[in-house]
Design a protein that fits this description.
single chain; 551 residues; alpha/beta; 6-stranded parallel sheet; 21 strands; 38% helix; 17% strand; globular
Length: 551
């Protein structure tokens, strides 16, 4: 073989090798494409639902494709490609509802840690809750958030850092102004809470010891939260005769603190004050007109709920803590003043003029009291029912260990006026109860379903699209949750899928432990936690963290 033939053979061999590599490469590419073609484009497809996307615009029919924890596509006739499918024909597909005022932090057997399945919220379509309102909660915040994460809840949870808890930790249970050094220490705790994940500062200026803080002190704490991207949410000092001044103060905290501010669970308590929502709403409107980012949330019930001590024992009598308060109960002069003030509060305030309007929701020292009102308890003892005997009973209840109460003293007219206002979002002020235990306020089981069933469908007081906005994109924007609150590609796949003709709250004050109906499916972070109206057992919820978090 001559040199020329050798070169030809070597070239031919190289060509064959290249062709072999090309064939192998083509086979690999073909295999990759085959695998890709076989893999479904989505992990879950919600088919043919009426999309109420949360923005407030008209509904439309489309499919929602979910990949992982994210909405991948929204459009007609998406190809399921073998992915599991939820048939939403005739149903509403909305963003998962966001509850900006919940007591999911509760520790007495319930709460999201004790009941991580949160079925009462899931069956309302709630996929995210915010805990530690009213100035309360753990300080520091991190241990609480770690407990929630360890519980692996079915729904998401975010949190506030509480001004009342911070004041209690630094100043104590005393009614005096904080010193400059104490304010600096409280500011440091706000900063720490924001860095640990809080979405803002909650104040409970109705409750001790938060009540002992003057406006200037609260503003100094609010400034820290505002500088770190947080908001302020306030249980106001007074929701009765002083409600207008309390709204002004809530607005001032935001205006002077340089952060968004929210009148939470807005209501007007006491017959003599009914109708004042006309003026409170005007105050918020005027604040916004001059540039203050002030908003409102509300639950749709004509009764409130808080502890008997918090509602009916005057704040001055609680100074110094429980032991000091009980000593005042024993002092004839102090007891007389306390008794008179409790009687007044039952008459003109939370009691709505009748001891029968104050109902015991839970009393650990005597569970048999749950569901009974003050008048009923007095009659069972053959004691005359008067404001004064009711006041004595209140002090007895507090002395023996305290109780949670329900107070029927709100007017439906104020409720509707506040609910319909465009600045109002929906929030439950409820918790995660142990099913069947005690007699809690029905708002824990029914708030969101009640708005959809009673105020949208039955009474026609809100358009469906606006009600969904008040439960989803509006609270998401308020909390600066940029990845939730709308049915849009790229956002987290939290969805509430319900029958608009059946959705309804079933819980009542007499029978509170009843789940809402009409919620067909609920998706949290891409996973079904409710499917065909059955709890799946999935627990994909996460701890949500605010804008100031140090990661």
């Amino acid at each position: 073989m001559n040199e020329r033939e050798g070169r030809m053979r070597r070239a031919l061999s190289a060509s064959v090798t290249r062709l072999s590599w090309l064939a192998t490469g083509a086979a690999c590419v073909a295999a990759v494409w085959q695998i890709h073609a076989q893999a479904p484009a989505y992990d879950l497809l919600v088919r043919g639902g009426r999309i109420v996307d949360g923005a407030g615009g008209p509904w439309y029919v489309a499919d929602v494709g979910i990949k992982g924890d994210t909405i991948a596509a929204v459009g007609p006739h998406l190809d399921a490609g073998g992915a599991p499918t939820v048939d939403a024909t005739g149903l509403v597909v909305a963003p998962g509802f966001i509850d900006v005022h919940s007591h999911a932090e509760a520790r007495s057997g319930g709460g999201l840690v004790g009941v991580p399945g949160a079925e009462n919220y899931v069956r309302q379509g709630v996929t995210s809750v915010f805990a530690n309102p009213d100035g309360g909660g753990d300080v520091p915040l991190k241990p609480f958030l770690d407990r929630v994460a360890a519980a692996r809840p079915a729904i998401n949870l975010g949190s506030f850092i509480g001004q009342g808890s911070i004041r209690g930790a630094v100043v104590g249970m005393v009614d005096r102004k904080a010193t400059a050094d104490e304010i600096r220490r409280m500011q440091a705790l706000v900063r720490e809470g924001m860095e640990e994940g809080a979405f803002g500062l909650s104040t409970g200026l109705f409750y001790v010891p938060g009540n002992y803080a003057p406006l200037d002190e609260v503003v100094e704490l609010a400034k820290v939260a505002g500088q770190m991207g947080g908001i302020h949410q306030s249980h106001m000092r007074n929701e009765t005769a002083g409600v207008l001044d309390s709204v002004r103060e809530t607005i001032a905290i935001g205006e002077r603190g340089g952060l968004p501010t929210q009148v939470t669970h807005h209501k007007i308590i006491g017959k003599g004050n009914w109708g004042r929502s006309v003026d409170t709403l005007k105050l918020v409107e005027e604040a916004r007109a001059r540039g203050v980012d002030a908003t409102i949330d509300q639950y749709p019930y004509t009764a409130s709920s808080t502890s008997i001590q918090g509602a009916l024992i005057p704040q001055w009598a609680q100074e110094g803590g429980r032991d000091a308060m009980l000593e005042r109960f024993l002092d004839p002069a102090a007891r007389g003043k306390i008794r008179a003030e409790i009687a007044r509060l039952i008459d003109t305030d939370r009691g709505g003029g009748d001891p029968a309007n104050v109902v015991i929701a839970a009393a650990e020292y005597d569970p048999s009291l749950a569901g009974k009102n003050l008048s009923q308890i007095l009659r069972e003892r053959s004691t005359p029912v008067t404001l004064e005997t009711a006041a004595d009973l209140v002090m007895e209840i507090v002395r023996k260990g305290g109780a949670q109460g329900i107070y029927h003293a709100i007017d439906e007219g104020d409720l509707v006026r506040i609910l319909q206002h465009p600045l109002t979002m929906v929030a439950s002020d409820g918790g995660v109860p142990e099913f069947g235990k005690d007699a809690p306020h029905p708002r824990s089981y029914g708030t969101f379903a009640r708005v959809l069933g009673t105020y949208v469908r039955e009474r026609g007081l809100l358009p469906l699209e606006d009600a969904v906005r008040k439960m989803s994109s509006y609270p998401a924007a308020r909390m600066r949750l940029t990845d939730r609150g709308l049915v849009r590609p790229g956002l987290k796949a939290d969805l509430a899928i319900f029958d608009p003709l059946r959705v309804k709250d079933m819980a009542t004050f007499d029978r509170p432990h009843q789940y809402a109906v009409g919620m067909v499916a609920v998706v949290v972070n891409g996973q079904l936690v409710l499917d065909k109206e059955r709890i799946t057992g999935a627990r994909p919820g996460r701890v949500l963290r605010g804008p100031g978090t140090k990661r």
